[in-house]
Design goal:
- By secondary structure, this protein is mainly alpha-helical.
- Helices cover 64% and strands 3% of the residues.
- Helix 1 runs antiparallel to helix 7, helix 3 runs antiparallel to helix 10 and helix 7 packs antiparallel against helix 8.
- The relative contact order is 0.18.
Length: 206
């Protein structure tokens, strides 16, 4: 995991819905920060789902996990994210929003993280606008690992994920030679759509 730290964890009571959201973000953060080992693949292979879009995405991920192994998933991860020239996909907000790395989206994100008191742990060399780090931040904001005001997860999502991360997951979903990670892209894309719709509904109800 791409670790982050915050010196003021909250004591927030997390309901079942938010716990489920946090688990989705944590899973995406894990799979985007490293390839899965056999233990994680075995766990994912037991996933099932209902007929909802997110349920079908869970089922697809479970089926993909059952068809692969640690070596194959590791090869997919390397080719996608760590190969020559940084791999086939660049999971950074600056790349999607500014066409470069270390751009203005990263500067704006660093300002937000500073206001929230969130910082990377020593030795973490990835820019903070990596998709895995943003998913990790969302996890912490939802469950209270990071102290934050009410609604901080929605504001962070709308500012730093929604403008681009759906496109990234859609690109990952189209990775023809990476069937396991294509299923990760499907889950990410569908989950982001669910989050966007839920936040929109909550805004209308205020």
């Amino acid at each position: 995991m791409l670790e982050l730290s915050n010196h003021s964890p909250s004591e927030r009571v997390v309901d079942e819905t938010d716990l489920g959201r946090a688990q989705q973000y944590a899973l995406l953060a894990t799979l985007l920060s490293r390839s899965p080992d056999e233990r994680l693949l075995s766990h994912l292979a037991r996933l099932d789902g209902d007929a909802s879009p997110i349920g079908l995405a869970h089922r697809a991920l479970g089926e993909a996990a059952a068809r692969t192994n640690e070596e194959e998933a590791g090869r997919e991860y390397f080719d996608l994210f760590a190969g020559p020239g940084r791999g086939l996909l660049l999971p950074y907000a600056s790349h999607y929003l500014a066409g470069t790395l270390y751009g203005r989206p990263l500067a704006r994100l660093r300002q937000t993280l500073g206001l929230l008191g969130i910082e990377k742990t020593e030795g973490n060399s990835e820019p903070e606008d990596h998709a895995a780090i943003l998913c990790e931040v969302m996890t912490g904001l939802i469950i209270g690992t990071f102290s934050s005001p009410s609604g901080a997860d929605r504001e962070f999502f709308e500012q730093h994920l929604d403008p681009w991360i759906g496109r990234f997951f859609a690109d990952l979903e189209r990775a023809d030679r990476a069937p396991f990670y294509a299923s990760v892209g499907l889950l990410g894309r569908v989950f982001v759509e669910v989050e966007r719709e839920a936040f929109a509904r909550s805004a209308l109800s205020v």
